[in-house]
Amino acid sequence: MPVYFPEFVQLGAHKYVVRCPYNFKERTDLYGQCDNAEAEIRIQCLESGGNPRPDSEIARTFFHEFLHAVDCIFLNCEVGKMKQSERIINGLAEGLAQAFMAGQMPTVTEI
Ligand SMILES: [Zn+2]
User: Fold this and answer.
1) Distance of alpha carbon 110 from alpha carbon 10, whole angstroms
2) CA of 65 to the centre of ligand 1 (A)
3) How far is the CA of 109 from the centre of ligand 1 (A)?
């Protein structure tokens, strides 16, 4: 099942553009990035060898970067300042991505 991402996510007064696919030119080992200064979430969709990344991994990367943005906007980047911040973000992103990929997330539809 292909994963579709929104063009942007609105967080408070901030509109984060979602760039997917995004090709990191400076680092090939990077799969995602949340640039709070530019208000951008960047997702690499290819492995370093050029093969497409599995949708589940792309979803996990999206939620990971999304949570970094949520942390900065709503928590003053407090999670990011913690020693175990990446471990916490990874765990939360994994749970959200698993529920998302299983179709077990709420959705909004127009009536
Ligand atoms: Zn991270």
Assistant:
1) 18
2) 6
3) 31
CA of 68 to the centre of ligand 1 (A): 7
Q: Beta 14-19 vs 40-43: how paired, if at all? A: parallel
Q: How many angstroms separate the alpha carbon of residue 30 from the centre of ligand 1?
A: 10
Tokens representing residue 7 in the block: 């063009």
pLDDT, tens only, 90-109: 999 999 999 999 999 998 88
Query: How far apart, in whole angstroms, are the C-alpha atoms of residue 97 and residue 60?
Result: 5
Distance 110 CA to ligand 1 centre (A): 33
Instruction: Using alpha carbons, select from 96, 37, 29 the residue that is nearest to residue 62.
Output: 96
Question: What would the pLDDT profile of 1-47 be if each residue is shown by its tens digit?
Answer: 678 889 999 999 999 999 999 988 887 788 999 999 999 999 999 88
pTM: 0.93
Find the 85 Cα to ligand 1 centroid distance in Å: 8
